[in-house]
Design brief:
Layout lengths: L1 H18 L27 H28 L6 H26 L4 H25 L7 E2 L3 H27 L16 H33 L24 H26 L4 H24 L1 E2 L10 H6 L6
Antiparallel strand pairs: 1-2
Helix pairs in contact: 1-2, 1-4, 1-8, 2-3, 3-4, 4-5, 4-8, 5-6, 5-8, 6-7, 7-8
C-alpha cells in the first residue's frame, strides 16, 4: 500500500513540476546544477529549482519503498513466480523513470519524453494496485466469478481506460502547460480539438462501464443471493452452468469506478471552461491516477484465487523433525 501511495504521489509532484513551469528548474541531472546535487541559493535562484528538486526527492523515497517491496514480496519463495515478478516491477519502473527524467532535462523537455514519463507512471500505478490485489489472495488457479459477457465488457473497459489516459496525456501536451516557461515545447495539435476527442473517449468509457454494471446487476437479480467474496464455487460455463451471482462488493467497486470517472469529467469540463488553472489540472492528474486504481481493483474483484496449497514435505524430512512415525 505504501508503494501504491508513493506511485500516486510522484504523479502529483511530477504534475506540479510541469504545471509550475519548473521542468528545467534543475538544469542538470542527476545533480541539480553543475557541481551541486541540491539547488544553490543566489539572487538568480527561483522557486522552480526547489520544486524540481522536491520531485526528485520523492523519487528517492519511491526507490526506498520499491526496494522494501522487492525484499518483502519479490524474494518471498512461498509465493508464485508471477507474484514475485510483479513485485519487482515498481523498482524496475523507478529506475526507468529516473533515466527518462534525466533525458527529459538534458534534451529540454521534448513532449514525447515528457508524455512517456506520465504514461509509465500510470502503468506503475496500475501494476502497484494489482500487486496490492495479489498480496491479499493466494496463488491457486484463478477462477472467474462473472459471466463471459461481463468479462468481455471488462476487457473493453480496460482498453478504453488506456485510451482515455493516453489521450489525456496528449491533450495536456497540446495545451499551455509544457513544463518550462522559456522553451515552449508541446504537441503541435489544437488543444480544444484534443480536449473534445479526449472527452468523447471518456463518454465511450462511461457507456462501456454502464453496460458492465448493468450486466452485473442483471446477473445478481437472476441468480439470487451471492456468496461472500473468495468463497464462490468455480464457474462452470463450459458445462452449461452459469456463475453464481457476483459478490455485492463487485458492484460497489464498479460504482466507485463510475464515481471517479464522473468526478474527472466535472473537473475536466470546468478546467477547460476556466482556462486550465494549475490547481484543477493537477487535481485532474490525481484523479487520473485514482481512476487507474479504481479500475484495477474492480477487475481484481471479477475473479478469485484461493489460498495456495501447503507445500508437500517429504516423509524423510518429517521423520527427521520427529513428526512422523518411523
Amino acid at each position: 500500500m505504501a508503494n501504491l501511495v508513493a506511485q500516486i504521489l510522484i504523479v502529483v509532484t511530477g504534475g506540479l513540476v510541469r504545471l509550475t513551469a519548473s521542468g528545467l528548474g534543475c538544469s542538470s541531472w542527476p545533480s541539480c546544477t553543475p557541481g551541486h546535487f541540491t539547488p544553490t541559493s543566489h539572487p538568480a535562484t527561483s522557486y522552480h529549482a526547489y520544486i524540481e528538486f522536491g520531485n526528485r526527492t520523492i523519487t528517492g523515497l519511491l526507490v526506498v519503498v520499491s526496494v522494501a517491496v522487492v525484499i518483502l514480496a519479490g524474494l518471498d519463495r512461498s509465493r508464485s513466480a508471477g507474484y514475485r515478478a510483479l513485485a519487482w516491477l515498481p523498482f524496475a519502473g523507478v529506475l526507468v523513470q529516473a533515466v527518462i527524467g534525466g533525458m527529459a532535462v538534458r534534451y529540454e523537455l521534448p513532449p514525447a519524453l515528457v508524455g512517456s514519463h506520465m504514461l509509465i507512471s500510470m502503468g506503475l500505478v496500475a501494476a502497484s494496485a494489482w500487486l496490492w490485489v495479489r498480496s491479499r489472495e493466494g496463488d491457486a488457479a484463478s477462477r472467474w466469478l462473472v459471466t463471459t459477457a461481463t468479462r468481455t465488457l471488462a476487457a473493453a473497459l480496460c482498453a478504453m481506460g488506456a485510451v482515455v489516459v493516453v489521450l489525456g496525456v496528449v491533450t495536456t501536451g497540446a495545451g499551455p502547460h509544457s513544463g518550462d516557461d522559456q522553451v515552449g515545447y508541446r504537441f503541435a495539435i489544437d488543444p480544444l480539438t484534443m480536449a473534445r476527442i479526449h472527452a468523447a473517449s471518456v463518454w465511450v468509457f462511461v457507456a462501456v462501464l454502464a453496460l458492465t454494471i448493468y450486466q452485473l446487476q442483471l446477473r445478481a437479480r437472476q441468480a439470487g443471493p451471492a456468496p461472500r467474496s473468495g468463497t464462490a464455487e468455480p464457474t462452470q460455463e463450459g458445462l452449461g452452468v452459469a456463475p453464481a451471482a457476483p459478490d455485492p462488493s463487485v458492484l460497489r467497486a464498479g460504482y466507485r469506478v463510475l464515481g471517479v470517472t464522473l468526478g474527472q469529467a466535472v473537473i475536466g469540463y470546468v478546467q477547460v471552461a476556466t482556462h486550465l488553472p494549475i490547481a484543477l489540472v493537477n487535481l485532474h492528474m490525481l484523479g487520473a491516477a485514482a481512476l487507474v486504481v479504481a479500475l484495477t481493483l474492480f477487475v481484481g474483484r471479477l475473479r478469485a484465487r484461493g489460498l495456495a496449497p501447503a507445500p508437500e514435505v517429504a516423509p524423510d524430512a518429517l521423520r527427521a523433525a520427529g513428526t512422523a512415525p518411523a
